[in-house]
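Researcher: Structure for this, please.
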Amino acid sequence: MRSPAGVKSPESVSHLPGHLALVGQTLIICGGYVVGREAAQKFDPLLLTGLRAWGSALIYLLLWPLLRKISPSPLTWREMPPSWKKRLFILALLGIFFNQLLFNWGLRYTTAATTALIYALTPSVVFWLGVWVFHRERLQAQRLIALGLAYAGVVLALWHNLLHSQSGWGWLLILAAVGFWGWYLNYSPPIVNRLGPIAVTAYIMQIGALLHTPTLGIGLFRQKWEELGPASWLSLAYLILGMSVLAYLLLSVGLKYLSPTQTALYINLQPIGTMAIAALLGQEPLSWQLVLAALLTTGGMLLFQR
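Model: Predicted structure, token format:
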């Protein structure tokens, strides 16, 4: 059956922009796990999250006139139905408030490699939500075996950290952040398809900044200002410009062209990329436990997607 004239069939729509966007996002995130640890360790977690939220929101606000010309939104905020505004608020709560706060706090007490390995489990979070909540996934033996391999890799990485580093319970915070990120990925596509990726990202950044206003205020009083140096501020700038502004925008583009599960697949590439960057910068030496953990987690999640 042919599509009407001037209308592309779903099969003819290119997925290349989505894949290119997610490759760029993956590289930015890998660098963020490594570079962002400086800010995570020197800034108070509440202040860091508040500054990151407000910094990214202000950048989007300044760029908004230009962004609207590049990708015009069909509706303004006043014209949106309440259901759309509610979904944007939920996305800001999941992806900006809870995810960023838990990520920044957890990165303070764990390593970049462990953070990347835990985030590689995002497709499995999307899957379990699809089984238990959204009822669009089914349990299959192959997928359970693949998840077992991936989970074994994360357990091995955690065991390595407990024995060879002073990183402690931060992995629990990172794991919770991944849970909120899985919900974010499930809730994003409907509103992204209606408003466009740029508008959605801009709106959730503004809402997220408002949600983090109390966080910023409390963090200002908790911060030990004498601990901050030029490297700390440069690390914060990377978190704002790279991890918040560019990474979220590229993720929204990816969600426009690909499914949540396909999007989460790119997170599987983060452990190996993060370990390579951390080793090159001398932040974390490579060990057989970490290499094996990355192979198990990456291999398991790639098998999971087959």
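Researcher: Any notable elements?
Model: Confidence is low (pLDDT under 50) at residues 1-12. The first helix runs from residue 16 to 42.
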